[in-house]
Amino acid sequence: MRIPRGVRRVFRLPTTRERLVRELDDEVRFHIETRVERLVARGMPRDDAYTEAMRRFGDVDELRSYCQTIEVTHMQRMELRERIGGLAQDLRYALRQIHKAPAFSAIAALTLALGIGATTSIFSVVSGVLLKPLPFREPDRIVQLLGQDAKGNLQGRYTDPTFDDVAAQSHSFSALAEYQFGVSTIQVGGEAYPLKTASVSRGYFDVFGLTPAAGRFFAPDEQVLNASPAAVISYDFWQRQFGGAKSAIGASLFRGSQRLIIVGVLPPHLEYPAGVDVLTPRETRPKSTSRTAYNWLAVARLAPGVSLPKAQVDLSTILKRLKATYGDYTWTSDGTVVPLRDRIVGPIKPMLLLILAASLVLLLIACANVANLLVARMASREGEIAVRLALGAGRGRLAQQLLAESSILALLGCVGC
Amino acid sequence: MPRDASDLLHGTLDVLVLKTLTWGPMHGYAIAEWIEERGDGELVIVDAALYKALHRLEDAGAIESEWGYSENNRRAKYYALTTRGRAQLRAEAATWRRYATAVGRILGST
Fold first, then answer.
1. Predicted local confidence at residue A4, as pLDDT
2. What is the pTM for the complete model shown?
3. For B5-103, CATH number?
């Protein structure tokens, strides 16, 4: 009797290789014997007839392996189709379950959404602040110079004479700059705005490896005492105030009665200190001679081939020598060099990690809650599971179905956040 | 001189098998005999090739098989055309005729 397609599979009847070979052999034997009989009937001796029939049949072994290949790929195809069909069935069933218990599903999805949402938003902040490098060229070569004050605390402030000495005596930096920043009232086009401004010394743009988005940075004749004041503005301010027009170059800003001529624009998103809009040359104002007027921050770019520890030793040596020379005239007794990034994110790093951990705990709690909900619901579905097991569902198949349900809930949670 | 049908264009044997089965379910030997008779002995089929075609066509769903008993009351595997097989035959027969006509026209041109 011929078993219809699929029945053998449904009832897990053996479709072994032996059965295939046996059936093929039966088929071939019938063919050859029939031919032998026909040939004998026409008067051929039986031995000759058999030889002739075999000759005309051709390569039986090759036929056998050909049919086996067909069978194997057929089985693989069927298995795949069955698996996909089962998955589709599970997903449909899961959707029906969710539809049947909307309150439960909504609560589960919402719980997950809260957990996932909190974690992802915190993580995006953490990754932006802690993991991404600063957007400058070779950002790990940019360092901040620190000095040790009388109390032994490391802080970022330098005096003009100390900075100049360091600049003159150090060999670790390819560029070195001091700067300070604050908020000034800037008038432009008849309006006044409180803007973040910075005064930067020669080498500042080299430290950060910047090239102007428009115009140019400061020329040497703008970086001398009492030179006509020039200004470099941020890309953001350029867009906001001038709509990105080229005519901004050469336009005037007023700080009090002082007129600043815009000479260039910083590249987008690369302003430092963060949010600064107007940069002016430090050299137009006289330098202080006091070794206790800690008004400046110092940044530098490590020279090629110079490691951070080497630069640290270099700076420390110079500062100790200065302390020995000037004694009580300076409070800086030692100092070191730290990557700029660490200086920026350093203070908030533990806090951020703490918040991230907290949000992860929140996610775990959400998962635990949803798991509890599912367990509670399972209790009411014991009958259904029992029926499935009785009908021959394997453990794996059952797990697949329940996983499909949970996955859809999780997916709803993701969409929800 | 008789030609080995497996020498012919790829797929030719499949069409011949499908066409033969339009006369009703047959076992492999009957199919071979039928093709040889209708081909006036011009087409000789290597039996192994015929069975390859049969298993290939069955896998593609063009024919289906069933064990039955032959005229001399022996167990034999019978093949029958499916709906899909009929459709395949129609399509391939049309293609084949167009092809044969085209080749004939080229060979007949002076």
1. 62
2. 0.55
3. 1.10.10.10
